[in-house]
Amino acid sequence: MASTSNLTKNQNPNPKAPIFISADSLHSILTHSSLIQHFHSSLPKLSPTIQSPIRQNYAVSPHSSLLLMPSWCSSPSLPYIGVKLVTSFPQNSSVNLPGIHASYVLFSSTNGQTLASMDGTVLTLYRTACVSGLASKILARNDSKVLVMIGAGNLAPHLIKAHLAARPSLKRVIIWNRTMKKASDLAEHLSKCGDHNGVCFESNENLEEILELGDIVSCATNSEVPLVRGGKLKVGAHLDLVGSYKHTMRECDDEAVKRGRVFVDNEAALVEAGDLVGAFERGVIKEEDIAGNLVELIEGKKMGRRGDDEVTVFKSVGSGVVDLLAAQLVYEAM
């Protein structure tokens, strides 16, 4: 957590010009380990004090969306209002552009002044990956050795690094993507960066084969058809589902949901995520079968993994709460 002196700097009665925090600055401030720890320590204490309405999602074309994610808190330890504006254009991959663009604006909840704007795309990549990393720290087996990464987009390297930070026992990372060159390029890049000594990075085009190897399987795709077959999951695997955030999107089949104990980052996943909404509609599971959310896991109010043979599933859709906490960590480090 930041120092008390940092917490009061936004309450200066003489307003200063808002600061802009670039993508490069975010990369220099944030690490996956530090953000995982920040979420672990802050979510139980601060999430009850944060107001975060379900995000507004507008279809601006058949394949693109505009999302608005506000949150605010009046606690002295988190005196901020934040709004993230996100555009999702999945078809951008065909023109070699990112599919997600975002900006995050931070205000004082004491006097309403604008404090900062920052690159919301990079902030989202870190916070999304670190929520998954925190969940795998709690739910994955302690002896997890193999991470299977499904998807090789901008989020994939962050998810890989977050899982490695959360589970240092991981020694092998296998990447699959529909376009195999992206998977092999990512594996080569991670191998060369030298940040993870002792970890082997590789790509593989046979998804069903590598699913059987994964102690942790992480998915970050825009798929509308199941990629993960529950019957292929290894005994004791942890399945991390990140990609789907609307009813038409789906990364796993019903068997995966039925076979595992399912946890969510927050209750919005129950009404937004196609993996779960479809399973509810088909009678595969009921809402009351959801084993808990991330805050309940951190607090120990809900039991996580109950044995080495149990399959766990974590479905995240994101929230303004973790956006605000991530922005706090960045702003107070400036």
Summarize the structure.
The chain is of the alpha/beta class and 334 residues long. Helices cover 34% and strands 23% of the residues.
Give the spatial strand order of the biggest sheet.
10-9-8-11-12-15-13-14
Q: Give the terminus-to-terminus CA distance.
A: 14 Å
User: Can you count the beta strands?
Assistant: 15
SS class: alpha/beta
Question: Could you give a short account of the major beta sheet?
Answer: 8 strands, parallel
Strand content: 15-25%
Q: What ranges have pLDDT less than 50 throughout 5 or more consecutive residues?
A: 1-11
Query: How are helices and strands ordered from N to C?
Result: HEHHEEEEEEHEHEHEHEEHEHHEHEH
Mean pLDDT: 93
User: What percent of residues adopt helix (DSSP H or I)?
Assistant: 25-40%
CA gyration radius, whole angstroms = 19 Å
Characterize the structure shown.
This protein has 334 residues and is α/β, with parallel strands linked by helices. Helix content is 34%, strand content 23%. It is built from twelve helices and 15 strands. The protein has helices at residues 4-7, 23-29, 32-46, 120-139, 155-166, 180-193, 207-211, 254-259, 269-272, 274-281, 294-299, 320-331; strands at 19-21, 50-51, 56-61, 64-73, 80-88, 100-108, 114-119, 146-150, 172-176, 200-203, 216-219, 238-241, 261-264, 292-293, 312-315. An eight-stranded parallel beta sheet has the order 10-9-8-11-12-15-13-14. α3 packs across α12 (320-331), α4 (120-139) runs parallel beside α5 (155-166) and α4 crosses α12 (320-331). The model is unreliable at 1-11 (pLDDT under 50).
